[in-house]
Known about the structure:
Layout: H1 2-17, H2 22-34, H3 36-47, H4 57-64, H5 88-95, E1 106-112, H6 113-126, E2 131-136, H7 143-157, E3 161-167, H8 178-183, E4 186-191, E5 211-214, E6 218-222, E7 240-241, E8 243-249, H9 250-267, E9 288-293, H10 301-312, E10 316-320, E11 324-325, H11 328-339, E12 343-349, H12 355-362, H13 365-371, E13 374-378, E14 382-383, E15 387-390, E16 394-398, E17 402-403, H14 404-409, E18 412-417, H15 420-435, E19 437-439, H16 442-445, H17 450-462
Parallel strand pairs: 2-3, 3-4, 7-14, 10-12, 11-17, 12-13
Antiparallel strand pairs: 1-8, 2-5, 5-6, 6-8, 9-18, 10-15, 13-19, 15-16, 16-18
Amino acid sequence: MGIILIQLLVLGTVIVLEGRDSARTIVWLFVLGTLPVLGALLFVVFGRFVRRYRLSKREEVVLGDLDFDSRVEADKLPDLAGKRPVNRKLEHLLGLDVTSRLTYNNRWEVLTNGDETFQALIQSLYEAKEHIHLEYYIFQHDMIGGDIIRILRDKADHGVKVRILVDGLGSWEFMRSFRFLKKEGIEAAEFYPIRFPFLTRKLNYRNHRKIVVVDGKIGFTGGLNVGDEYLSRSQELGFWRDTFVKLEGEAVGYLQTVFLHDWYEATKERLEAPEYFPVLPALGQGRVQIVSCGPDSRQEAILQVFFIALTNAEKSIYLETPYFIPDESSMMALKTAALSGVDVRIIVQGVPEYQITYWAARSFFAALLEAGVRIYYYQKGILHAKILIIDGEIGSVGTTNFDERSFRLDFEVTALIYETAFAQRLERDFVQDLRDSEEVLPEVFGQRSLWERTRESIARLFAPLL
């Protein structure tokens, strides 16, 4: 008993001194107090992140501090005359990070659901001439996964450098194919592999990013992994609603930077960056910032971006997310916006993938509904799109869910695009998704049973640990 008390004292002190938010601190202390041995094991595995991923200054220059302006033909820079200024607070915040600077010479294309996404992706892979970089949380070796692998093998046979980086947990089964891929000229690596002993400190910190870069000129990111279910081919899951974005131009260089950082972390191989950042012609006037963050980041960049966007909204906030577990600041921003007359609408999963996240999300509804936020359950199938639209002028598409796991635990990336046309394109999908959803009415939600309220409270209690 004395050893357990000492253990609780030491771990409790560590938790408090780590400076966590109060909710997470209280929950972890509760777990340690009620389940001393199991709680200590859970904290070692899930509660801490050892910041071992630190690039040297030289490597940061090679990978992250490139002068992208010099890689655009000077006489072909877009004419921004008459363009509305971007949100200055967002630009300043992200400008502090050399990997998130605003770019101006871009084209974009919104890809709705799996058919559009994989059609555009496969076409770009076929056209690759120099290199292909793919990074996914989940890569299934099923029909669509097999189709992509066959294309990659063919490109590797023709001299294209192909690299695949997958998460060690999300793509556990796919990693059985690694030795075959490497024999065929494809370089494959896993991010934070799960090996014996299975309970490691990195288990809870996953690479949730989805990035594809072709020849340093074309980039993709968004919510879709590689698998048949993302093409709505799964009888169990049914229709899959998701969004990807295709980018051409300067912003691709920042997606490339994220991939190179992650490749270095997984392999310790430092790729010489200049060959992966070609000089670009004039492509368009799309203003794009690529924002990435993870548990090793100095700042919670994506959470900060969303917070500033929410608090600066004047007309509308349209949020679409499969998992909704906001922190206190995000809750306050959403409620304050609605109380200030901003049209705030949130679409979440109505057909849940995971029961605990479904019920945890419900625990936040009452306070939001009381403030005037309108909430909808998506009914057509599985909602997996991660979209934020502000005032019909700024849009965000990426890998980040609106929950604490994405904001603080996982490695994520999102494309923030300051273009009215882009925001309006996202709004068209959002309006269609509203038609395929059922609104959560305050008077009906207030009549839910005691059992439902209890399930919400229990899930809410453990939400900070999810």
